[in-house]
Amino acid sequence: MLHPTYPILSDRLVLRPFREEDLDAFHAIQRREDVVRYLYWEPRSLAESEEMLGRRILQVAIDKAGDSVHLAAELRSTGEMIGHFNLLFVSEEHRQGEIGFVMHPDHHGHGYATEAARVMLRLGFEDLGLHRIAARCDARNDASWRLMERLGMRREAHLIENEFVKGEWTDELDYAMLDREWRALAG
Ligand SMILES: CC(C)(COP(=O)(O)OP(=O)(O)OC[C@H]1O[C@@H](n2cnc3c(N)ncnc32)[C@H](O)[C@@H]1OP(=O)(O)O)[C@@H](O)C(=O)NCCC(=O)NCCS
Asked: Which residues line ligand 1 (CB under 6 A)?
């Protein structure tokens, strides 16, 4: 089970639960066409962002398979909320998890997503005791699979037209890392 002590600090970021005051920053991300291009949903209205934020606020711990932790990433230097990161507990029996990440485009290109995603991997491997953590994306989502490779995840599959999303057949890239690979990376 995973009940982290918040906030979690990395070099340049604070990872913490969402709160109601995040609505403007959360919506600034959720409303953008370029952000959701390779995600399953369309840009969100303010009401939809508010409803989603209300759910995310509650997702701070993992007690059973199917639970997720969703965290806001904030710049330590300015306090600005720049993205969100999640860890899903996929299976207790098989000790499997999955991570996800979404950043505001104004903050791409600084390695912030890599830094925050490493925190999510650490939570999954070291605190939740997972054996394997996966991540997946649309095969055209270069920024996403490049991030998975920076993290040291392994490309395990390129699924061909496995889903019909936004009116077209899409390919999916599947990446993963094992606990022993995480320990080797951590040195
Ligand atoms: C996927 C996503 C989070 C990646 O963001 P990103 O900014 O490319 O990733 P990072 O923050 O790790 O930054 C990496 C870039 O910063 C550079 N960088 C600068 N300083 C760095 C540092 N200290 N550490 C690592 N990278 C650094 C890297 O070289 C890389 O640049 P490049 O893309 O030109 O090679 C972002 O594109 C996104 O939010 N997309 C929309 C939502 C989405 O599709 N999410 C994925 C769903 S599967």
From this structure: 35, 38-39, 101-103, 108-114, 137, 141, 143-144, 146-147
